[in-house]
Amino acid sequence: MNVELYVPFAVSTSASDALNEVLDYNLMRDTIAAYAKGQHIHLLETLCDDAANRMLAHPGVRAVRIRAEKPDIYPDCAAVGDAAALPAEAETHARERAISALSRRAQKDAYENNKLYKRLARQVGQAIADYQMIEAGDKVMVCLSGGKDSYALLDILLRLRERAPLHFDIVAVNLDQKQPGFPEHILPEYLTQKGVPFHIENQDTYSIVKRLVPEGKTTCSLCSRLRRGILYRVANELGATKIALGHHRDDILETLFLNLFYGGKLKGMPPKLQSDNGKHIVIRPLAYVKEADLEDYSALRQFPIIPCNLCGNQANLKRAEMKVLIRDWEKRYPGRVESIFNALTNVIPSHLMDRELFEFADLRVTGAVPAHGDIAFDDEPCSVGLAETGVENTLPLSLQPMLRAAP
Fold first, then answer.
1. Sequence-ordered list of residues with C-beta below 8 angstroms from that of 173, at least 6 positions apart, any chain
2. DSSP string, 13-79
3. What is the pLDDT of residue 353?
4. Which residues pair with 79 in a beta bridge?
5. What confidence tens digit (pLDDT) does each residue in 181-233 have?
6. SS3 sequence of 110-130
7. Burial, 358: exposed, middle or buried (Cβ in 10 Å; 0-12, 13-18, 19+)?
8. How far is 202 from 184, CA to CA, in rounded Å?
């Protein structure tokens, strides 16, 4: 079997003649040998396909070419299989074309990846600026769970800090809830490699939640309350001035729909708020970011994701239903979800029914034209003018001037 791997130029070139700077040849030999020894393989084609897939699973491999042959199968031929059949010159040209295609694809991938980061950086920076989330001298405690969202939050804040016009410190904090099988070495190793100051808080909230919440019931409410209390205490101990959480745009919309459908409230998830104990400011710098973009960014950055087995696998979560609803709307009605999200920043209390937000009881005639008037939904994007419908001409003559004068 002959295996050829195509890798980016940076991975194939060593700066200091060190093995860890390039793709180790043992990857090919050991991977194929372990696979072949582990089971009986009937078809040469199966061996080639599986070997190629295993090579492509490596993040540094862009393409693979495998040629294999079985010697001494027939007495009148040397071998059967996928042997090299192209003349040397033709094979050289084919190799050059393949490398050129890989180079173009690599350039396109690099362009798209850079565009993704720029979009995320712009959205995070805009949210921070719009709500003044981070100020000079702040110590931002980034709550790191091991999921894609908190990894992305930490990564983007670190990269933004490098060119920020003000200085602020970052400390990563993880709450180890003592879930069975939790890989407690992953986060310390990752943060140490990145040179990020961190603190791991060990608290067995898992046992508390499992003991107090009946089987089949959702654990989110109790689990989140326990986590908040512990994180507030840790923030005090570390001297953190801001607590940064990894909630994104979809989380905010899901919370809005949960409160709307099941709580009877027009309530979302604020980008900035005072903590429950009144001693901290909690911020959500990912408030403008789509979850789909975070998924792509997580794959690009190859974060060592740690799954949450306590809450993420609960099939009866209403939040999961909201997530499906949002994804469906985005596919079927482009722009609808974005419009709903924008509505959270464009609230008109006088056109709702909350007496605490608007003094309906004290409303009196002033003679002045109100800012929003009584137009309700007259400016519906899909509406048509009255002249187009002919409605105006069907009204009594006494009402037509009033309609034309109405705002």
1. 141, 142, 143, 144, 198, 199, 200, 201, 231, 234, 235, 238
2. --SSS-GGGS--THHHHHHHHHHHHHS----HHHHHHHHHHHHHTSTT--EEEEE-EEETSSTTSSE
3. 93
4. 71
5. 888 899 999 999 999 999 999 988 888 888 887 776 766 667 778 888 899 99
6. HHHHHHHHHHHHHHHHHHHHH
7. middle
8. 10
Q: Collect the ranges in the chain with pLDDT lower than 70.
A: 7-21, 36, 38-39, 72-109, 111, 216, 218-221, 308-316, 373-407
CB 154 within 8 A of CB 144: yes
Bridge-based pairing state of the strands 169-176 and 79-81? unpaired
CA-closest candidate to residue 282, choices 406, 397, 133: 133
Helix (H, G, I), strand (E, B) or coil at 175: strand
Taking the C-alpha atoms of residue 201 and residue 206, their distance in angstroms, rounded to an integer, is 13
Reading the block at residue 3, the tokens are 């295996």
Q: Classify residue 161 by burial, with Cβ atoms within 10 Å: 0-12, 13-18, 19+.
A: middle
Structure tokens at 78: 């040397």
pLDDT in tens, 106-127: 666 676 778 899 999 999 999 9
pLDDT in tens, 148-161: 999 999 999 999 99
pLDDT at 15: 59
List, in order of start, the domains of the chain with CATH numbers. Answer: 2-85 (3.30.1130.10), 129-343 (3.40.50.620)
Note the pLDDT of residue 328.
93
Runs of H (alpha helix) within 86-170? 88-130, 148-161
Residue 166 DSSP code: S
Residue count of the chain, please give it.
407
Structure tokens of 76?
């009148």
How far from chain centre, in Å, is Cα 209? 27
